[in-house]
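Hi there, hope your week has been kind to you so far. Please have a think about how the structure follows from the sequence. I've dropped the whole record in just underneath, so have a look:

_____
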Amino acid sequence: MFTGIVRELGTVVSFDGARLVVEAPESAAHAAIGDSVALAGVCLTVVGRSGALLVFDAVPETLARTSLGGLTADGSINVEPALRAGEPLGGHLVQGHVDAVGRVRSVEPEGEGRRVWIDSDALVVEKGSIAVDGVSLTVAAVDDDGFAVALIPHTLAVTTLGRLEPGDAVNLEADVIGKYVERLLAARLS
């Protein structure tokens, strides 16, 4: 379980399409083999650790359902270790199970922040929660093709969202409570 509060901006050291190595000194210092860590909002298992490096395996299922296949060496990635008992829940409940890969439609300055429109059919409601590349955000607006989020300067500075450009792929995870409500209602209505 995660909160969508990115703890560290890691650097992709290497990725061969199956084995992913990320430099994330803060997270690596506390990680053990078998721990769950969210990378760009995708829950992966630590399979190796050496100094500041964390090693993960990415199977075809993960690559087919997320944007991780597009990672390149020296790229930045949002890193969040799993929530530990007793830690504050600062964002919202995030599982690291990507619901959809969205495409950035536009990035517009908005005061000191930015408004980012993302095209997707992911389940969202205005003022509801959404995780974008693992970052817990509030849906600012919804239209027929997707939704918008409003990013504050802090989020722009400490996550990969400050580098988003139109056309970029982003991992999306809708609010877990909303997903269960939708499934329960669909079952009752059918």
In short: Residues 176-189 form the longest helix (14 residues). The CA atoms of residues 60 and 131 lie 22 Å apart. The mean pLDDT is 94.
